[in-house]
Structures
1.
Amino acid sequence: MSVFKHFLAGASLLALSTTANAVDLEVTHWWTSGGEAAAVAEFAKAFDATGNKWVDGAIAGSGGTARPIMISRITGGDPMAATQFNHGRQAEELVEAGLMRDLTDIATAEGWKDKVRPSSLLDSCTLDGKIYCVPVNIHSQQWLWLSNKAFEDAGVAVPTNWDEFAAAAPALEKAGKIPLAMGQQPWQTTLAFQVLLVALAGPEAYSKIFGEKDAELAGGPDLAKVFEAAEQARAMSAGSNVQDWNQATNMVITGQAGGQIMGDWAQGEFAVAGQVAGTDYTCLPGLGVNEVIQTGGDAFYFPVLKDEAKTAAQGELAKLMMSPEVQVAFNLKKGSLPVRGDVSLDAANDCMKKGLDILAKGNVIQSPDQLMSADSLTQVNDLFVEFFNTPSITAADAQKRFADIVASAD
Ligand code: GAL
């Protein structure tokens, strides 16, 4: 670039840029569905407006596919500038190995401790008193998304809770619908089980099992009814031959399926399809039984880089992700709730308002990633993949295996 051109480029960026040197930053994440892509574009837009450039490193196929790739790049000496993980313990070993940048200075200067709610989100970013990530949203899994059209076609009222939904399955089937849409990515079956657990056995049982690793409770009668419901869910989802979660959401959007148990990121898909909460679809937090939400979600980590300009730009991106404007723009598209309590979400739809209301009441639990190690969760995942794909495994067999996993979990 000639000196003159360089000067011009620099001058035109001056108004926007707060960095001395504008740089490209590669950011990896697994947000590739329509709603997710729309949301991540808000981050990119805001970052590009600083004069730097967001180089999008989307990895298709959900967290289960993306995380090993991200981790091997970081441990293999080819780090990206920033990367998504879920809130919790997924990046613990990378932090312990000194591969992640300490953001404590930025967090302190920006007053994150006073702004982030619930405080568990920042705690999940903290190791030995130092802050290593920026929580960007609150995503909860405890939702049943229902297609109003599917129930209309089947001639039954839109259910208000899990039991009514299960009771409507024969009518849905008669109308040619799959009662429960379920994708085949491993985490989706585990998610469905965890949501059933919180709804039917209650949030305390969930926290005792995943947090305190209470194997007796996991093997006991309260959990037996959850496993029976999981068996029911398995039968209701037979025939939903889709892989990705958003393909399953699409079955609900188009009325081919009655409902889907899925995190609130499904809202991004309904929004992209132009559907309206309450009119086209209905959402039941806590399956209409126990209205609590899990304050899981996504956080961005910044691998240690040797390049000074990139390191400075990382800091800018971290601040920006937490800024009020970006928090609102991103979360409205993502279907998640902002991590700051001091922003207004007037544009929130009915389902997000339900989520905000539950959050305000303090009816929250932590996500499995915050409570259990990644290794133990992989074992749980494997069990539910097998259970949902093998009708010959009874509820009782699966429960016994689950209790054994909990007994040795950390
Ligand atoms: C979760 C993530 C969400 C959403 C979902 C499906 O792990 O927290 O943001 O993207 O995966 O991809």
Note: Residues 30-31, 36, 62-63, 86, 139, 245, 263, 265, 297-298 surround beta-D-galactopyranose (CB under 6 Å).
2.
Amino acid sequence: MTTPFTLDREQREWCAELRALAARRLRPLAREGDPGRVNRPLVAALGELGLLARVLPEGGVASAMDLCLLRESLAQECTEAETALALQGLGAHPVLRSGSKEQRERWLPGVVAGRTVTAFALSEPEAGSDAAALRLRADPAPGGGWRLTGEKYWISNAPEADLYTVFARTGPEPGATGITAFLVPGDRPGLTGTPLDMLSPHPIGALAFDAVPVGPEDVIGEVGGGFKVAMRTLDLFRPSVGAFAVGMARAALAAALAHAGERRAFGGPLKDLQAVSHQLAEMATRTEAAALLVLAAAAAHDAGEPGIARRSAMAKLFATETAQYVVDAATQIHGARALRRGHLLEHLYREVRAPRIYEGATEVQRTIIAKELYR
Ligand code: COS
């Protein structure tokens, strides 16, 4: 049985299998992709290998533990595969958890097979950390339903996704009330998008909505219940962003250990210099602490324990900040070679920055934790 402190044998074997699959099957596909574009062969392979089915299980209840083990393991060998998997999950989880039977039957098989690429469209130019300030308007249409008008910004997988989970304002109320989640296929009339050139190897774009028609059949959950749909999705995914970060930290630590064991300077291997060995010990200790916090949050989520928002926020906050530190320290131990384009650490250095911002910046996580402490 899983405890927050250890994995059982089956889980450890699954993680080893995932790392091997990522290195053998997924990394070659990732290398063939265009930076900043959706890598469809990679997403299809995630489907064929049954990995998306673990993220979006048929029974409808996603396991935070499975998601974290998947993300941590894939991240150690192929961050592109990790992110492609996570984005499919993030975009489709609202349908899995809160969608109607018809929506689930219509869309999830394609998502799980890796044919239908999804995206989670919450952020806007004027609503990033303050998600409840979103302004995308859902105006009532004369014959029923709504017309969506406005913008979404910094949306991963946009503008190439086939299916968007879109959060819009159906009510006049400010703040979290009056927000509704909609399923919007990428080919709906009036929906256009542009890619954004970002410090991120995965695609990110902007979406423009010009009176895009949506009907009651496109509502995910209840009219006015959209903010909770978004928050519950983020409660599930935040520990797994931490798991992604732990995977990157583990990869950086392994590279630093190997390098410090082999590279000689001042008459011996780098690891014999206390300045280096103490740094390695600190990196290993903080990575272990982050991994435990992530596992504890995932186990608590799956057990339905109280305090999930707080524990998810703590795991995401601590693990992403730790990974930034570990990748930076590993870069320092490697010296100039780590900065060469194409080096593992040069790649991780670019990858590790964004998770401290997306799905709730570090400061937002602290706000959530502090609010929960006084609840
Ligand atoms: N689960 C269920 N419901 C939740 C919830 C959660 N985790 N968090 C908040 N809610 C509910 C609250 O209970 C409240 O409902 P009632 O009005 O019925 O009581 C409602 O949502 C509003 O909550 P709150 O007042 O806390 O909302 P805020 O506007 O203060 O938002 C944060 C707070 C910071 C949590 C929110 O803006 C946030 O998560 N921001 C970051 C957004 C983000 O991650 N963006 C990245 C997009 S994906 S890359």
Note: Residues 120, 122-123, 129-132, 175-176, 227-228, 231-232, 234-235, 309, 358-360, 364, 367-368 surround coenzyme a persulfide (CB under 6 Å).
